[in-house]
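re: that chain from earlier
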Amino acid sequence: MASHLLPTLLLLLALAVSRSAAGSATSPYLRPPPRETLSTSLADDADSTTPQQVHISMVGTNRVRVTWITEDDAPATVDYGLQEGKYGESSTGSTSTYTFSALYTSGKIHEAVIGPLDPDSVYYYRCSGNPAREFSFKTPPASLPIKFAVIGDLGQTGWTNSTLNHISQSNYDMLLLPGDLSYADLNQPSWDSYARLVEPLASSRPWMVTEGNHEIETIPLIESTPFKPYNARYHMPYEESASPSNLFYSFDTAGGAIHVLMLGSYTDFDASSDQFKWLQADLAKLDRSKTKWLFALIHAPWYNSNKAHQGDGEDMRKAIEEILYAARVDAVFAGHVHAYERFASVYNGNEDHCGPLHITIGDGGNREGLANKYNDPQPSISLFREASFGHGQLYVANSTHALWSWHRNDDDEAVVVDSVWITSLLSNPACQKKN
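^ sequence. v structure.
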């Protein structure tokens, strides 16, 4: 028993040293008691080659990357088809592993890209040729309307579980997650537990994620490479958008009617950085006669009236906000603050009808609890704020209108507490791009 606990104790000690060095050991607000942290183990009937932790993400508009883990060697193959139990197509990918601080070695991480796929269709698939587990997923539609589920700071607690249950009932097409996934915080088996917990949803709809501060996971003098576990486990389609890094990328969906920017709050973003230059080039390629909507995801919010994490996104805002404003980005979604807040359309701190709507959705279910202390008086640009767990839904109805709604977890029932219709900036004559 003692030898089993030693790696965890060492990791906790390293985490304490790391946090102390960063000057962030305490928080300036009191959190209410969270629900219990869950530990999702491998199914009793699984063996060392049973596919587990299965999740999918989009690659282009009609291909999907399937990622899964086996404990021992197994083929990196995905067999798939449009009928249950019948797989007319197959794709072979690659396998990798990673080690962390000499205390943990991951299972065999397999990934394979499948397609081209038909839009708005259900595909059945199996991984590594294993007949014991069959999965299915639905591809996004080729045109509007489309529905996104949006959650940040998810974690793996009882609140996480209720959030996932509510999302599973929403008939969404794709999930967007602006950082802080597992809250492993150096304890690598927690990544495995998290991926098993979310597998029922993450294997059935594309999950598009970007990193948060809890994905950095470095230990001074021991693990100096940031984002090592995140990059190994969540390969996003950065190559397809000509990004040099898995930490920032973009993708199109709904037949190209929507372009989504997945930006990195914890990698360089100043004017000389790769991210800044890539973002300029990515937006310059857009054909706005086809791309009707622009959305962006970051982790640390640029606007925030909560006492928690004040100013954490300010440097990035100063560096990048003008680019997003000029491109007429319709909405920016953030996490990091463990609460919900919806702002008006803003630019440079002021309400601006041609600026993006800013929404903080860092309330998925993390183990640290809620950020329930707000600044008073409430700023005029802050239209709705509440410290409760929940999730968001973005229903893009057509080329000009989308419905945003926030669903609070209240006694395990999803309650719609805030909603607003959004009009695309591209359709507003007053917001035509100025030269």
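Residues 2-22 form the longest helix (21 residues).
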